[in-house]
Amino acid sequence: MTTRTRFPSRPTLSRLAILAAFASPMAAVQAQATDAQRQAYDIPAGPLDQSLNSFARRAGVLLSFDPAITRDRQSAGLAGRYTVAEGFAALLNGTPLQAIRNADGGYTVAAPAAATGSNANAVLPTVTITESADPTAPYAGGLVARGGSLGVLGTASVMDTPFSTTNYTSQGIEDVQARAIGDVIANDASVRNTNGNGGFGDSYQIRGFTMSANDVAFNGLYGMVPLTRMPISMVERIEVLKGPGTLMYGMGPAGGVGGAVNLIPKRAHEDPISSVTATYLSNSQFGLKADLGRRFGEQQEWGIRVNALYADGNTGLSGSNQQQSTGSVGLDYNGGRVRWSLDAYTQHEDARNFRPQFSISSLVMPDAPSGKTNLYPGTTLQSDDKAVATRLEYDINDQLTAYGAVGYHVASSAQSWPSATILNAAGDTAALSNGYYDQKVVSTSADVGMRARFNTAGIKHTVMLGVNMLDQQTDYFFLSQSSNVTSNLYRPVALPTVTGARGAPTPQSQIRLTSVALTDTLSLADDRLRITAGLRRQQVYSHSLADATQTSNKTAISPVLGVVVKPVQNVSLYANYTAALSAGGFTSASDGNPNQLFPPYKSKQVETGAKIDWGRITTTAAVFQIEQANSSTTLVNGVSTTTQDGRNRVRGLELAAYGELQRGLRFNASGTFFDAKQYHTDNGTNDGKDVGAIPNSNFNLGLDWDAPWLQGLALNTRVTRTGSMWYSNENKLKVPGWTRVDIGARYITRAAGQVVTYRANIENLFDKNYWLMQNGYVGTSSGRTLVLSAQVDF
After folding, report:
1. How far apart are CA 351 and CA 150, in angstroms?
2. Whole-angstrom distance, CA of residue 761 vs CA of residue 794
3. What is the pLDDT of residues 225-244, one digit of tens each?
4. Which of 244, 272, 622, 706 is the most buried (most CB within 10 A)?
5. What is the pTM of this model?
6. pLDDT tens profile 686-711
7. What is the pLDDT of residue 12?
8. Domains identified in the chain and CATH numbers
9. How many CA atoms lie within 13 A of 445 on its CB side?
10. CA-derived radius of gyration, the chain
């Protein structure tokens, strides 16, 4: 009897997908477009039937064949970019079998009529299969890329890079239904979110050091990302560099040194992209996303990618409503020697009741309240962002390339500014205060340079000279009103009404960061030895527009030295030394010492490690040490005051592995161990004590599995463990560690003649209550959250 292997036709959520299709005028686009799209695949060698099924699932097409014709046949696998027809042809190379397209858009694998009897094992003409040399191509499993960009150092494979890097692909973003950058980068144990979903803004911790959204780069430019949340729907890839990234990317405006994050915007692919996605977020937020991409011209040199998002409804926080709208367009031109791109986006968010933070004066840590509890009833947040950035590259000849980029971004927000201090283990809080914190930040960023490639005495050189600049002006209006209203974490009361008049933001501060970088990457001994050396001359100009006496202008030279040694082709041993100059910045208006200017400070890192590519799995190990000026937040008369006091030294051990454990089982595992100490503190008060808000250890395990009993179904889970940490540098109060479990599933099928991908994720499956730490403040975690979506690809 003939067995037919195919996708089920009508899964449970098909009605949602059909609604999404009818909601879009793109429903008229022919379903056959999917067959012409060239996508990236990474399918291992193995039994032919398994390889065919894996390819059909990832391509989103129906497949039928008689198992008898594939029995005892092997496939060489598939790596690179292929259309559906090209992929089947490559997998069937060396066999007499053919993939025949049916009228319903599916495929049937069969032996041609002429290839029967004694000719059944005849060998067809050889088709050459070459693996993609693009370092940004997906690695085994498709969740991360083989490499990525490193700013002025160009694009390189992870194995050729003397730093710890991870590059998350669009598949890695979509499979977890990421709504924010932190949903993706927190897959690494050295990275943690320091705000729960639905807070007033995103922030992260990398290698123990806080990093704000303002320090995230967009296509290599700082200052282009919203100060609250980045619209991840327009992001194709997320590149994470751990350790100071000053030489590679320049200085971030917020001075983060634990790492650098660069967002790569979506681009039109070689073949059409048309998709609509209906979304649901508990408790009752519904949304709709659209993604269109086309290429034009005789050589498809012109491209356009458009993304739009609208969502509105109640979130998992009690009484919370969040409305979001985003629109983006990405244009690009690839004429061989000339490459140009332009990206523009606009974003609006209107939230009622967001997730807050608290300071603590108690010496006993209260239990974290439910993530669904609204601890400050009555907060509001509105934010608007508009940005445009363009980049041009020109190959003057085969050895010399010139490039330039410029961007402009206006961010504005208006929000409530509540505050309270936790007094005891019972969760009582001091008198509530309420107010306004409205701001406008205008950023202009530029990056120009030249890259030369040449050989001398058998040594390959890549020399780069670059100049970048960021000018950022901050205006704000701040009003805080105290009250006699008290509250409790477990029985919160509404915020007091603000009676003061709300004014327009006025100019407060300006930061201008400029630098010149010169680097040379040398490759010797048949590329088994790579040395990267460079210098960046940095200038930090900080000026208070509210107090002209507070001005700082400092210059420093930051070096980098990196070495990669490959004793064998799949093993990389590396070491690096980097240094950075960061703007000291200003304290916020809510500090006990508002608008105080801190001088720029230097940071430095030493790191060494090993990377081994086993073919389908890569394992890495690294030890590092980072030193930085210490920023300390303390309570003075109930008001948080920020000061610089001594230096921090963070040492760590990182272990990680990712790839495919076996066919259809993808994984990502990592662990980081910290030893963070203070020294040179005022009067030696905190010398030798642990640095506050840095956990002793973190662990991550993520699995993504193709279910064998139902073609097109995949299940995933992520377990996140964050260790305990001190609340402050005084080491008097411990914040307990926590473990969180997420699960999910996705299913690819056809509905109404279209390829549909259904996704379901449950975040914080066991509804764990825990505290998140951020430099002297604690915030609540997000509670159990259900995320559903149905994506229709036309």
Report:
1. 36
2. 24
3. 998 888 899 999 999 999 88
4. 244
5. 0.83
6. 999 999 999 999 999 999 999 999 98
7. 35
8. 39-110 (3.55.50.30), 147-265 (2.170.130.10), 273-793 (2.40.170.20)
9. 30
10. 27
